[in-house]
From TrEMBL:
Gene3D superfamilies: 1.10.287.130, 2.10.70.100, 3.40.50.2300, Histidine kinase-like ATPase, C-terminal domain, PAS domain. Residues 446-667 form the Histidine kinase domain. Keywords: Phosphoprotein, Two-component regulatory system. It is an enzyme of class 2 (transferase). Residues 690-804 form the Response regulatory domain. Residues 376-428 form the PAC domain. CDD domains: HATPase_EvgS-ArcB-TorS-like (cd16922), HisKA (cd00082), PAS (cd00130), REC_hyHK_CKI1_RcsC-like (cd17546). It comes from Chitinophaga terrae (ex Kim and Jung 2007). This is histidine kinase. The keyword Phosphoprotein applies. GO terms for molecular function: phosphorelay sensor kinase activity. The lineage of its organism: Bacteria, Pseudomonadati, Bacteroidota, Chitinophagia, Chitinophagales. It comes from the Bacteria.
């Protein structure tokens, strides 16, 4: 600084010396650090003395607001009000300011910025110098301002550092206090996975004492248990992603579970990575979770069992909340009603799934439950959305809380179709059983009448013959034969029905002439028709084969039954049988159509199907009037079905009846045809043939002897198989007729010996045992000639004819 007219050299030197003393004082460290306020006050007095100012102040600056913040020292009247107008200008412009007040130079103000670098740290204000202030004063004070700026900056940094240290100490103290209040174990680990700090509320929660952890790696501290935790730490260090795991206490005797979380510290400045490990005792939570899982598993299993039970029992449940209107159905109800689970539920629309005739009953019960809380239990017809009809049991009841208030309505819907069908079947079965019992009772009554009637004739006429020859002997014999045939027919009907019920009847396949068979039956029925004044017609197609292969006995039984019924239920007019050959597509077979027609009483439409049932006649009055067992048509239909055909009935009440059926027969080659003209006459049938009768009943032996007497046979008889074998050792026979049930040696035991002694002799079995297994046992022994007792002599002659030929 140079001397100027305004400042003589001597004054300048004095000011600079004074300035140097001030600077020297400022540079004394203790001067500022011991008592900064005193130092600022001394500085301000020195400046006022140096510049001749009467007033002065020093004020710090808020860096963020760039405005005066705190007055460090103020020496002026009225708290330095005269300085305030220039402070903001100096802070903003960062340049000294001389403000000359208008009244006098003595009131001028000098405002000096104290800067460090380009930052204004404080403002020094001086005022009241005689003659005012000029640039020379500013120039003089520049070195001092720089020194004060540096000192203030250092003081500012020192305070800031002290504050940071204080805050860090406080933060660490708070952190440690916080860590100690937690239930968790908190650990800190550096980048080398070495434990640097451990916090724990209770040391006994730690696996080992805290001091053992510090300074050790995971591997060193945990040994064989360390790997899974070490792997978690590696993942966090590599990815920065927090890792978490639930684990059981590594001490086997401890039933505890812990949650470990490992994450990176968020460093405010770049530096080595640090890991924060938080371990929480979650034993209660884990126990609850295990119990929850167990409960959920039990609930799931219970629901599965419930669903299975509901599915097996076809029963679903429902619940309705009357307060919220919410409805819940189990899966089985959706299944029963064949609707998706998205179907909109409504308590009112529920009635739509019931049969129209049952809806009113359901709605009344439902409303009574809704408004009066009265339970219901109903069995109703149910119709699904797809039209499937079932029977259901629907139950509803109110659920009350402890206060007796209704909280929900609940119930079930159960498919009881099988039960209901069983009940209906049971009712029908009981009804059928009652009808069957009544039918059987009526049948027994009819059978008693039907059997006693011919027996009465047989016994009566036998008694008359026993009295001696009479003029009406031929008539008596004819009536005896008719009664015997009628009685045999009754017995055969019963036996055939029994065998049909057991499915034991099989058709024979032999050659016969169908026209001769029908004509023979018609001849036998002619006397009965004639006695009632009826015409009996037969009609045959000229194209019918002379012989067919089938079962003439069963076909004859069908025709006989139908003709017998037609004659029985016709009081005037005629009965006819017509046989026609249908168009045949195969030369080895033909189909014959049989039609039996009458002009009798007819059959009502409602009885036309039932008339083929066992023991059924249209009414008991007809049964009493016309007789019969009620088995004829039942047997007839089953026999027709055995021929793989079906019988057709056409009838109107009081207008007559027509029965029609078709049967397909094989046609034998011409050389196999039976030429009736070559039949051997009965008196020559067994001429000179030796026949052995084995029978224990003397009457039956006598009947056979008389029946065979006219055939020319040479007859011998014995009473059992044992005697027969002795006789066969001595004499050869052409044929044997034997009974099955005999003393000492029965027929089954005798047959193998007969075949061994005389294998060329034919065997005919006559037996009253008609059980189905009899024919099977005889077939196994190689015997196919079986004639059940009682039998017609003609049947015996036909069987002998076949065996002799």
């Amino acid at each position: 600084m140079l001397a100027t007219p305004n400042m003589p050299l001597q004054e300048l030197v004095m000011q600079q010396q004074h300035l140097l003393r001030i600077i020297g004082q400022i540079q004394d460290d203790a001067y500022w650090q011991d008592d900064a306020r005193n130092s600022y006050e001394h500085l301000l007095h020195s400046l006022m003395e140096l510049t001749g100012s009467r007033y002065g102040f020093i004020r710090t600056v808020d860096k963020a607001l760039e405005a005066p913040e705190q007055t460090l020292i103020n020496i002026s009247p009225e708290k330095g009000k005269e300085f305030f107008s220039c402070l903001q200008t100096v802070v903003q412009n960062k340049e000294p300011l001389i403000n000359v007040l208008p009244d006098s130079m003595a009131n001028s103000i000098l405002a000096l910025p104290v800067k460090f670098g380009n930052e204004v740290l404080s403002v020094i204000g001086l005022a009241g110098r005689a003659g005012g202030y000029n640039q020379d004063t500013i120039t003089l004070l520049e070195p001092l301002l720089k020194l004060v700026g540096r000192i203030q900056q250092e003081e500012k940094q020192r305070k800031k550092q002290a504050e940071l240290v204080r805050k860090a100490d406080k933060q660490e103290e708070d952190w440690n206090s916080l860590m100690l209040t937690l239930d968790d174990i908190v650990m800190e680990m550096n980048e080398q996975k070495i434990f640097t700090n451990v916090w724990c509320r209770q040391d006994d929660l730690l696996f080992m004492p805290r001091e053992i952890f510090l300074g050790k790696t995971i591997l060193e501290a945990l040994g064989e248990h360390a790997k899974e935790f070490d792997d978690l730490a590696d993942i966090v260090l590599q990815t920065g992603i927090r890792q978490q795991k639930i684990y059981r206490d590594i001490r086997p005797e401890m039933e505890k579970w812990y949650s470990i979380k490992i994450s990176l510290f968020e460093n405010s400045v770049p530096g080595p990575k640090r890991l924060l490990i938080l371990i929480r005792d979650v034993s209660n939570f884990e126990s609850q979770k295990i119990n929850l899982k167990r409960s959920q598993a039990e609930l799931k299993r219970s629901n599965q069992l419930l669903n299975m039970c509901q599915d097996m029992s076809r029963m679903g449940g429902w619940e309705f909340n009357p307060h919220t209107g919410q409805i819940y159905w189990t899966a089985e109800i959706y299944k029963l009603r064949e609707i998706p689970h998205t179907y909109p539920l409504s308590i009112q629309a529920d009635a739509e799934f019931y049969h129209p005739a049952d809806q009113a009953v359901y709605e009344a019960a439902r409303d009574n439950l809704l408004y009066n809380y009265q339970p219901y239990d109903l069995e109703l017809r149910h119709i699904s959305a797809k039209g499937k009809q079932t029977w259901v049991r629907t139950v509803g009841q109110a659920i009350l809380n402890t206060d007796g208030m209704v909280t929900h309505l609940r119930g079930i819907i159960m498919d009881i179709t099988d039960k209901k069908d069983a009940e209906l079947r049971l009712v029908k079965a009981m009804d059928d059983a009652q009808k069957a019992a009544q039918a059987r009772s009526e049948f027994l009554s009819v059978m008693s009448h039907e059997i006693r009637t011919p027996l009465n004739a047989i016994i009566g006429f036998s008694g008359i013959l026993n009295n001696g020859p009479t003029d009406v002997q031929p008539e008596i014999i004819q009536n005896l034969q008719f009664s015997a045939r009628h009685l045999l027919g009754l017995i055969n009907d019963i036996l055939d029905f029994t065998k049909m019920e057991a499915g034991k009847i099989e058709l024979e396949h032999i050659a016969f002439n169908p026209v001769d068979l029908i004509q023979g039956i018609a001849r036998n029925q002619q006397p009965t028709a004639k006695s009632k004044g009826l015409k009996l017609y037969t009609s045959f197609d000229d194209t019918i084969p002379e012989n067919v292969i089938g079962d003439p006995v069963r076909l004859g039984q069908i025709i006989n039954n139908l003709l017998d019924n037609a004659i029985k239920f016709t009081s005037q007019g005629y009965v006819s049988i017509e046989v026609q050959q249908e168009t045949c597509s195969h030369p080895d077979s033909c189909t014959l159509s049989f039609t039996i027609k009458d002009t009798g009483i007819g059959i009502s439409e409602e009885m036309q199907e039932r008339i083929f049932e066992s023991f059924v006649q249209e009414n008991s009055a007809i049964s009493r009037l016309h007789g019969g067992t009620g088995l004829g048509l039942a047997i007839t239909r089953k026999l027709v079905e055995l021929f793989n055909s079906r019988i057709i009935l056409e009838s109107k009440k009081d207008e007559g009846t027509t029965f029609r059926f078709d049967i397909t027969f094989r046609v034998p080659p011409a050389k196999s045809a039976i030429q009736q003209k070559n039949k051997t006459p009965r008196h020559q049938l067994l001429k000179d043939k030796k026949i052995l009768i084995i029978e224990d009943n003397a009457i039956n032996i006598r009947i056979l002897e008389l029946q065979l007497q006219a055939t020319g046979a040479l007859i011998s008889s014995v009473s059992n198989g044992k005697i027969a074998l002795e006789k066969m050792k001595e004499e050869l026979f052409d044929g044997v007729i034997l009974d099955l049930h005999m003393p000492e040696m029965n027929g089954y035991e005798t047959i193998p010996h007969i075949k061994a002694y005389q294998p060329d002799a034919f065997i005919i079995v006559l037996t009253a045992d008609i059980m189905p297994e009899v024919s099977k046992r005889l077939s196994a022994l190689g015997v196919n000639n079986l004639l059940p007792k009682p039998y017609a002599a003609e049947d015996l002659m036909q069987m002998l004819q076949r065996n002799i030929v």
